Amino acid sequence: ICYHNAMKNTKKRNLKIRKYLIPACLVIALLLIIKAIVFVAEYFSVPDAPDDGIDYPVRGIDVSHYQGDIDWPTLADQNIAFVFIKATEGSSHVDKNFEYNWEGATNTHLKVGAYHFMSFESSGETQAENFISNVPKESNSLPPVIDLELYGDFISNHPSQETVDSIIQPMLQMLEDHYDKKPIIYTTSALYEEYVKGNYDNDIWLADLSFPETLPDGSDWKFLQYSFEGKLEGYSGYLPHLDLNVYNGSKLDFVREY
């Protein structure tokens, strides 16, 4: 009798398990199918690069208010997959076209990111706060970018490593904490050697018109700004050109990463 009752209870438990397990498995399977469909759709949304002899299949641009009023559907439909948009500078400046550009770009197929022009004259904390208060936190956006370059008197009088570190370190941490993405550092080959190499392990967006295959220390760059002379349709600013960029990887890599 005890054995018989135990078997009955076991069967009941198994029926209950199957009752809930089968729907749960169906839900998981459906979610995986949806994820796969989204992934495939994103892959095919990455346009083929133009046949210009450059062996990088994922192309992009960066823009600011200098490109004036941008017709985003027109600009996006020209073999580009991503755009970095200038958002902020220093502790208080906001690019006057950032909000318009962000909204317009995010309504296209483009992967969109924002960059901050770093100042050597204000704290990293206040600069990070300026960026965070103006750039939306969106899960599908590219990582935030800190633009490390020299300007004004700093071109001839380079700031010390200590000065750069005291500003960029808190910025990197605050941006990563807020956006849950490790920021990218934009810089030149010379400044990478001077300030970044051996000090930061962030992905690098390199500005170098010589189109180097690697960074000066032999490691890989993530994005490369290889031209300041791009000319596309869809913008009306007083600068007739815009910057052209490539991603260091395949279309599949790009979709997997971003």
Can I get a quick summary?
About 40% of the residues lie in helices and about 20% in strands. With about 260 residues, it is an alpha/beta fold. It starts with a helix and ends with a helix.
Explain what this protein looks like in three dimensions.
There is one protein chain. The protein has 258 residues and is of the alpha/beta class. The chain has helices at residues 2-45, 72-76, 98-106, 124-134, 161-179, 189-196, 251-257; strands at residues 59-63, 82-89, 93-94, 111-117, 145-147, 184-188, 204-207, 223-230, 242-247. An eight-stranded mixed barrel has the order 1-2-4-5-6-7-8-9, surrounded by four helices. Helix 6 links the parallel strand 6 and strand 7 (204-207). The radius of gyration is 24 Å and the shape is globular. The mean pLDDT is 90.
Layout of helices and strands, plus pairs?
Layout: H1 2-45, E1 59-63, H2 72-76, E2 82-89, E3 93-94, H3 98-106, E4 111-117, H4 124-134, E5 145-147, H5 161-179, E6 184-188, H6 189-196, E7 204-207, E8 223-230, E9 242-247, H7 251-257
Parallel strand pairs: 1-2, 2-4, 4-5, 5-6, 6-7, 7-8
Antiparallel strand pairs: 1-9, 2-3, 8-9
Helix pairs in contact: 4-5
